[in-house]
Design brief:
This protein is α/β, with parallel strands linked by helices and 194 residues long. It has helices spanning 12-24, 57-63, 78-92, 119-129, 167-179; strands spanning 3-7, 28-33, 47-51, 69-72, 96-100, 134-140, 142-144, 151-155, 164-166, 187-193. Strands 3-2-1-4-5-6-10-8 form an eight-stranded mixed beta sheet, sandwiched between helices. The chain has a two-stranded parallel sheet with strand order 7-9. Helix 3 (78-92) packs parallel to helix 4. The longest helix has 15 residues, at 78-92. Bound molecules: NADP nicotinamide-adenine-dinucleotide phosphate.
């Protein structure tokens, strides 16, 4: 049974993925978010809710106790958040991190110029990639509500293929990454509809 800590648990993709974890696996979840009153516990037998800011090292480190996988679904000031996660994982002895970023952070989307709005995504991915953690950075295209689970992956160094990707596809991939030892470890993957 995998124990998964979801950071930024009130995010759109995080809420979607938590539902998929509960429906398709026996994983237990710790949902970490600011202003926890916004979230109703979907399954108290398997889900714990922790109120905290990722930048609060003490609360974050405490939440990492007895976890197997950290799934970071964040936005905003991403670089210091990535640094806080790497530090807290070191002090907790945790290795496995799934980190949500965005397409375009390496200027890898054909026909699109790099935009400075991506700086927090590029800089936080660099923090994660320069760590010694067993990370997987995901660089999704635009999220859609398509029901289909239908995606292709591109590696760092390859041109990004595609444009958008369903939440169902991303959640499927995140659940596989969290529950399959060694899958795409130390890779940064573009994810888009096949
Ligand atoms: N939507 C798309 O098409 C698309 C495409 C590619 C990439 N992305 C990126 O993929 C990521 C996940 O997407 P999403 O739609 O799930 O994003 P989202 O709904 O904006 O969720 C991000 C979450 O991060 C939380 N957060 C930010 N700073 C935090 C902190 N210091 N401590 C704790 N929590 C913090 C926010 O919490 P609060 O609710 O408390 O603010 C929010 O719930 C985002 O970075 C998004 O930009 C999105």
């Amino acid at each position: 049974m995998t124990r998964v800590l979801i950071l930024g648990a009130n995010g759109q993709l995080a809420r979607h993925t938590a539902t998929v974890f509960l429906r398709t696996t026996v994983a237990t979840l710790t949902l970490y978010l600011r202003r926890a009153s916004r979230l109703k516990n979907p399954d108290p037998a398997r889900v714990r809710i922790v109120e905290g800011d990722v930048l609060d090292t003490q609360v974050l480190t405490a939440a990492m106790k007895d976890q197997d996988v950290v799934y970071a679904n964040l936005a905003g000031v991403m670089k210091p958040q990535a640094a806080a996660i790497v530090d807290a994982m070191h002090s907790s002895g945790l290795k496995r991190l799934v980190f949500i970023s965005s397409m375009g952070i390496y200027g890898e989307v054909p026909g699109e110029r790099y935009r400075s709005v991506l700086d927090p995504y590029r800089d936080s991915a660099a923090v994660v990639e320069s760590s010694d953690l067993d990370y997987t950075v995901l660089r999704p295209g635009w999220f859609t509500q398509d029901a289909a689970i239908d995606y292709r992956l591109t590696q760092k160094g390859e041109p990004f293929e595609g444009h958008d990707v369903s939440l169902n596809s991303l959640s499927d991939l995140i659940v596989k990454l969290a529950t399959t030892p060694g899958l795409h470890v130390r890779q940064s993957l573009g994810v888009a509809k096949a």
